[in-house]
Each structure stands twice: as C-alpha cells, then as structure tokens.
Amino acid sequence: MRPLAHQSAAVDLQAVPGPFLGQTLTDYPLPEKLNFFGQQPAVFLLAQGAPLGVMYGKHWIRNINELYDDPARAACRATTCPDANFTVNEEGYVVEKASWRCGEDLVYRDTGAACDTPERLIAYVNCKTFNTDGSCKATTDVVEIGNANPDFNLAFSSGFNYKRLSFTGLVDWTQGGSIYNGTRQWKLINFFDTIFDRRAGSKYFHRLAHCPAAAHK
C-alpha cells in the first residue's frame, strides 16, 4: 500500500488578553463627553485618561447604604432622610417607603388605598470632584456600570490538507466582558419597564398605549 502523498496537519492554540484591557485615552484635548452609537444611550466616556471600553450610565440603587454616597443624603441621614424612610422592593431596588407599591394610578397595589407618589427607582449619586478641603464640589449620577473588554480571548484551530482537499476547524472563546442592554435602559429611564405598574387602569399605561412615541424620548 502506498503512503498518502501531499498531506499535512496543523494545530494552533492562541490565548490573548482583551484587545483594549487597561488602555486609556492619553491625549484628548476636547471637552469631556459621553459618546453614543445610533439610537443607543451615550455610554462610552471620552475624556483625558478615560479607560477604553468602560461603560457609564445610571446605576439603580439596590442597597440602602449606597444612598448615602450622595453627600446631600449623607448630611441628612441622622435627621430628615434616615434609613427607615427607604425599603427594598420586590424586584430588589431601593425605593422610598411612602411610595412602595404605589401604582401609576396612585393606588397602592396591595391595599387598594390612595397614594400620592408612584413608586420610583433611585439613581446612585456620588461625588465627582472635591474641594481642596476634602468637601464635595460636584456630584454626578453617571457612574461606571460595566466594561465591554473581555478578560481574554482564546482560539483553537486545526487543519488537515490532502492533495487538493482542505479541512479546517475553529473554536473561538471569549471570557468576560459586559454587554450593554440599551433597550432595557430606555425602558427603565422612561418608567415603562415591566418592573413598574402597567395595569390597564393606570393613567401612565393609558398614556403610553395611546402615544407610542413616548417610549422613544
């Protein structure tokens, strides 16, 4: 039996860190801004020293202690805005206790009694810049919410050639990296995500149903 002629085989394994992991903008003389693509919210920060691939936006508070990273709330924690004024709702978000379970039709979902303010999520706020004495100069509710950079990329490929025939295979694996859910973010910002009260009797539900453009503001 004659041996196979013109044959070859190869196996290749590559593991590399995320392409932009740890990289920053070192020369950006323009004013700081959040950049966006298409109709998605602006999430990528353009600023001197800003890390590439890090996403910014609103972080909805899930822990009562996070409320008091806001200097204004920290100042009134022992007086007019104590922990007792807030609670964690069924979806795991911190809300004001007085509005907990209050629907968009201003009726409590559990008791049916009238209420004054619909339940709302609370955005995280912290100090962005400080004065020379350490006091807070300016606050922001735009914070880091994720990083699109993977921890690493892994690829495994193999190939086999015989005469004019060629067979190849590739397995590509990415570990880590956040994916931004822009669709869900718009719903949360405009208060028509499924975590909010959208019963047919709700005034807010009625307004959305008859004005679909409200969902795209």
Question: Descriptors for this entry?
Answer:
217 residues, three-stranded antiparallel beta sheet, mainly beta
User: Beta-strand level of the residues, as a percent range?
Assistant: 25-35%
> Mean pLDDT, as a whole number?
80
Form type: elongated
Terminal-residue CA separation: 75 Å
- Which structural class matches the secondary elements? mainly beta
- Strand elements, count: 11
N-to-C series of helices and strands: EEEEHEEEEEEEHH
- The percent range for helix content is 10-25%
Order of strands, main sheet, comes to: 1-10-11
Topology of this structure?
Layout: E1 7-17, E2 33-35, E3 44-46, E4 54-57, H1 71-76, E5 86-88, E6 94-96, E7 126-130, E8 136-140, E9 143-147, E10 152-162, E11 165-175, H2 182-189, H3 203-210
Antiparallel strand pairs: 1-10, 2-3, 4-9, 5-6, 7-8, 10-11
Could you please describe the fold and organization of this structure?
- With about 220 residues, this protein is mainly beta.
- The chain has a domain at about 1-55 and about 145-180.
- About 10% of the residues lie in helices and about 30% in strands.
- The protein contains 3 helices and 11 strands, in the order ββββαβββββββαα.
- It has helices spanning about 70-75, 180-190, 205-210; strands spanning about 5-15, 35, 45, 55, 85-90, 95, 125-130, 135-140, 145, 150-160, 165-175.
- Strands 1-10-11 form a 3-stranded antiparallel sheet, with no helix packed on it. A two-stranded antiparallel ribbon has the order 2-3. A two-stranded antiparallel sheet has the order 4-9.
